[in-house]
Design a protein that fits this description.
The complex is a heterodimer of chains A (about 600) and B (about 220).
Chain A lengths: L2 H6 L26 E7 L3 H4 L3 H11 L4 E7 L3 H9 L18 E5 L6 H11 L14 E5 L15 E3 L3 H18 L3 H8 L5 E2 L4 E5 L5 E6 L7 E2 L27 E4 L1 E2 L9 H5 L4 E2 L2 H15 L3 E5 L9 H14 L3 E3 L7 H10 L6 E7 L3 H6 L6 H13 L4 E8 L6 H21 L8 E8 L16 H14 L5 E5 L3 H10 L5 H10 L13 H11 L3 H5 L14 E2 L4 H13 L24
Parallel strand pairs in A: 1-2, 1-3, 3-4, 4-5, 9-19, 10-13, 13-14, 15-16, 16-17, 17-18
Antiparallel strand pairs in A: 5-6, 7-8, 11-12
Helix pairs in contact in A: 3-6, 5-17, 6-7, 9-10, 13-14, 14-15, 17-18
Chain B lengths: L1 E9 L8 H14 L16 E3 L8 E11 L8 H5 L7 E8 L7 E11 L8 H8 L6 E5 L5 E5 L4 E8 L3 E9 L9 H9 L7 E11 L7
Classes of the chains: A alpha/beta (about 600), B alpha+beta (about 220).
Chain lengths: ~600, ~220
């Protein structure tokens, strides 16, 4: 072990996350590899190791002969300070070697607020932040993950972005890189070829011009780069790689269990949900294969907890059969199955009750909005009766706590909708009085509201975020209406949501702001401990940009968006139609009931 | 159904795995090796597994002991070979056998404390250290379980200590009380820093070497 590291570790919290050596971490002989990849996650070890995409791509890259993919995470503040003091550059967990010396630095970015951590990791690695300042082919800085559907705010820092699912394209990018290395191409030559790989976006090959009012005038490709870049997906989930043999961390992480991915995409079409749009079309893994992977993963890892994961698990066609099949195996192995992302309908409750062994704690539902009118407007196809019926069953079955998640600031929201949230809570309370089997235990109902952030590639991408004053007024209004003692109301005075709204729809001019915020100390800004609104406002002021232009402005249909050249397969016409239907209060049926022609079946037939 | 004991090494990266994380790690290691841990019979069953003398984070050891119960009726033969492929780097099972002696009979541990001096060991260091630890009382500040600072005298907890020095390293081989109360050998460094500040090392590391009962027979 590096002597500097040995001396630092006793002084930092949770040192086990900085040393590697976990079960199934891939070790290779450096003399036998020609391409070294530092797979970076711009957040802590505990968050990054909980990410299934990270595990999939780690497996895929390490299956390649001659390629060694190692992991790297953002250190917590105490560790960062010690590393800087000891002049120790950011290193990869497997070999302990500095990532600045690697061929490729690949980021997986799922969240815009991780952009500052990404820059800080480059800085900790001693790598110049701007792509233009890195003249050599290595280290090539690439990025993928859902935040790349609008990567304009970091366009100047990355050499290329991978849009969509990475399993296939990362292999193609690495093979092209190896060819470039063998044949001695310069970086520009490599990038000009890479931009023709499906799903690869090279921001440096596009010029962006602006109107006087600050909106985008045009995005113009150069050097033969394609005008539009379509995301890449895996069309056959039964052929997609699944990490049945995966790293088992030796320290507790956030999702410390096996994640079994049932399907990708979502049939629901909630108008606010970016994942619901960008992961289309629906593609399922066969239940036979799911069961097989479940067994393999449990036997290899020794985990005794597994989550059946997807964007909406109760919509998996073979869910009951899969659970039936796994039940005896689970009993034998003391394995607990958990089903996240369940919809509040009777079917899922019955299943949940069957799987939940031992302690019955709380259930969580996300009605998102307080009135049927607003739930229809956002196309959350859930009725209050569905929710109440599920609560009645839960209370009758011995549950005594329910958490309800809502958003404030959704398009068309009125005070009536805000107050409706309190009514929903009161009705849930009433359901408890009707159905609870053991009233002596009491009941805990928790209502949480968050501040709605409009996202690119959704039906609400044209919408303004409500101002902080208006958000706080609505919170106050709701607090006044929540007068039962048994209902706890949680809300965050979250300036992070404002900055998220700013960055998620940011354009390329925002690169300067990110660089400035980095200079002023922005790091793990997804964490409240490190986030500073003041720092961001100062950075915007220093760069002469107005954050409210990005967060609080209503865009017109037809305006060129900073991400207009990025094609997720869902047509703009469809998004406009969905946007209009929100104002008409008209719902769109889920994809299983009726195809609404979003366009995503351009990739493969939708497996709805 | 058998009560078994593992003898294992914990070193390198694994020395940074905390006690609770190590318990969690072993809960997964047994199923990987094809064994089902027995669980308690309460409303919230937990696996029957315990570490005899938890090692402070950052220290290495050649002689960690872990007690466990499995559903299978086995005597420990072949278990080390079954478990070792499934362990993280730095953990290695040396042996597995029926747990016959009670953990409370564990009385002493032998450990090696290494003090690094990057600019060379100060002249006469070993002699000064021998002199210091020949006193009847050497007080060290220690944080108690309730996070308060307490002064403890380390001398009654040390059965023997031998100091040697080389160019950049002073080594103490110490036999100390293991429990009720026990002495963390790392406290010897704190004692040096407090009493002989000119001998404060640049770094200190500890490796646990052996465990003994009250009669100084090896404890297994």
């Amino acid at each position: 072990m590096d002597k500097r590291l040995e001396r630092i570790l006793p002084r930092v919290q949770k040192p086990a996350r900085y040393v590697g050596g976990e079960y199934n971490a891939v070790m290779k002989d450096v003399s036998q590899v020609d391409t070294r990849v530092a797979f970076c996650f711009p957040d802590t070890y505990e968050i990054g190791m909980s990410n299934l995409g990270m595990r999939i791509l780690y497996g895929v890259m390490n299956q390649m002969d001659g390629v060694w993919c190692e992991r790297c995470f953002h250190p917590w503040g105490d560790m960062e300070q010690e590393m800087r003091k000891a002049q120790m550059p950011l290193y990869a967990l497997e070999s302990g070697d500095p990532i600045g010396d690697f061929d490729v630095i690949a980021f997986s970015v799922g969240y815009e607020m991780a952009f500052p951590a990404m820059l800080n990791m480059l800085d900790l690695a001693g790598v110049p932040l701007r792509s233009a300042k890195r003249e050599a082919l290595a280290p090539l800085v690439i990025a993928g993950g859902t935040a790349m559907y609008n990567c304009e705010p970091i366009a100047d820092f990355i050499d290329l972005a991978l849009l969509g699912e990475g399993e296939e394209q990362i292999v193609e990018v690495l093979e092209l890189y190896r060819q470039a290395k063998r044949e001695g191409w310069d970086k520009h030559t490599f990038l000009c070829k890479a931009c023709h790989l499906a799903g690869v976006y090279v921001p440096g090959l596009y010029d962006v011009s602006y109107h006087e009012d600050g909106t985008v005038a045009a995005i113009t490709p150069r050097d033969g780069a394609p005008a539009r870049i379509r995301k890449r997906i895996v069309t056959d989930m039964d052929k997609a790689y699944y990490p049945a043999r995966t790293i088992v961390p030796s320290t507790e992480i956030v999702q410390d269990r096996i994640t079994l991915e049932l399907f990708r995409g979502c049939i629901r079409g909630c108008r606010f949900c970016q994942a619901g749009y960008v992961y289309r079309p629906v593609r399922s893994r066969s239940k036979e294969l799911c069961a097989q992977y479940a067994r393999q993963a449990v036997e290899d890892s020794g985990y005794q907890e597994m989550t059946l994961s997807s964007l909406s698990t109760s919509d998996y066609r073979g869910l009951v059969e899969l659970c039936d099949e796994l039940e005896p195996f689970c009993a034998q192995k003391h394995l607990n199955l958990s089903l996240p992302s369940l919809r509040a309908d009777n079917f899922s409750m019955a299943l949940m009750e069957r799987l939940q062994k031992g302690r019955k704690t709380g259930l969580t539902f996300a009605p998102e909005a307080g009135t049927q009118r607003l739930r229809d407007a956002i196309n959350k196809n859930l009725t209050e009766e569905d929710l109440l019926e599920s609560c009645r069953r839960a209370f009758a079955g011995g549950y005594s706590a329910v958490k309800l998640y809502f958003m404030l600031g959704l398009p068309t929201e009125t005070d009536e909708d805000v107050e409706g949230i309190a009514d929903v809570a009161a009705h849930v309370m009433h359901a408890w009085r009707e159905s609870a089997t053991n009233k002596n235990r009491g009941v805990r109902i928790t209502v949480s509201t968050s501040w709605f952030v409009p996202k690119p590639h959704t039906a609400f991408q044209w919408e303004p975020q409500i101002s902080i004053e208006e958000y706080e007024r609505r919170v106050a209004l709701l607090r006044e209406r929540m007068n039962t003692k048994t209902v706890t109301y949680n809300w965050h005075p979250s300036p992070t949501s404002f900055m998220e709204a700013v960055i998620s729809r940011g354009d390329r001019r925002m690169c300067a702001v990110l660089e400035e915020a980095h200079r002023r100390g922005a790091t793990l800004d997804a964490w409240e401990e490190y986030f500073s609104l003041e720092r961001w406002m100062d950075a915007f002021a220093a760069c002469g940009l107005d954050p409210h232009f990005y967060a609080n402005r209503t865009r017109a249909h037809g305006e060129v968006m900073p991400w207009s050249h990025i094609d997720v397969g869902v047509s703009e016409a469809f998004l406009q139609r969905e946007h209009a239907r929100c104002y008409e209060g008209v719902t769109t049926p889920d994809c299983r009931t009726q195809c609404s022609g979003c366009g995503a079946n351009c990739f493969c037939p939708c497996d709805r | 159904m058998a009560k078994l004991r593992l003898l294992f090494v914990k070193e390198d990266q694994a020395s940074y795995i905390s006690h609770l994380d190590l318990m969690r790690t072993f809960q997964r290691v047994f199923p990987r090796g094809g064994m089902n841990l027995r669980h308690s019979q309460g409303f919230h069953p937990h696996p029957l597994i315990s570490i005899v003398l938890p090692l402070p984070v950052g220290q290495s050891s050649d002689c960690e002991l872990l007690d466990f119960e499995v559903e299978q009726d086995i005597d420990g033969t072949g278990i080390a070979d079954a478990l070792n492929p499934g362990l993280p780097a730095g953990l290695f099972v040396r042996d597995c056998y029926r747990a016959e002696r009670a953990a409370r009979e564990l009385a002493f541990l032998r450990a090696r404390l290494e003090l690094d001096y990057d600019r060379g060991v100060p002249a006469g260091a070993a002699d000064k250290l021998r002199e210091l630890f020949s006193h009847d009382e050497v007080l060290v500040e220690k944080r108690t379980k309730h996070k308060e600072l307490a002064q403890i005298n380390v001398i009654p907890l040390i059965r023997s200590v031998a100091w040697t020095e080389s160019e950049n390293l002073v080594t103490a081989e110490v036999v100390a009380a293991a429990q009720n109360p026990g002495l963390n050998p790392a406290l010897l460094e704190n004692a040096v820093a407090a009493q002989l500040p000119e001998l404060s090392p640049d770094f200190a590391r500890v490796r646990r070497l052996e465990l003994y009962d009250a009669e100084m027979n090896v404890f297994r």
